[in-house]
Amino acid sequence: xxxxxxxxxxxxxxxxxxxxxxxxxxxxxxxxxxxxxxxxxxxxxxxxxxxxxxxxxxxxxxxxxxxxxxxxxxxxxxxxxxxxxxxxxxxxxxxx
Length: 96
Hints:
By secondary structure, the protein is mainly α. 66% of the residues lie in helices and 0% in strands. The protein has one domain. The protein has two helices and no strands. The longest helix is centred in the middle third of the chain and has 49 residues.
């Protein structure tokens, strides 16, 4: 039957119980792992913020170039792009 195929969850601790010193060593090791993980995450956040800043700057430059392009003069798109550029310059940190 299906019930015969179930492996019971081990509820009893096998082997000798951990001593207080062993537990402390495990806790200290885990603390070091958490510190390392936090440092990696902080480095990732710093890098991603730099990338976001560079992308925003590049976007601003592209929009500026588009506003000065003669192909858009008098089409209404140039006005729209200038308004977009003004919005970016007025609220540079709004997306953060």
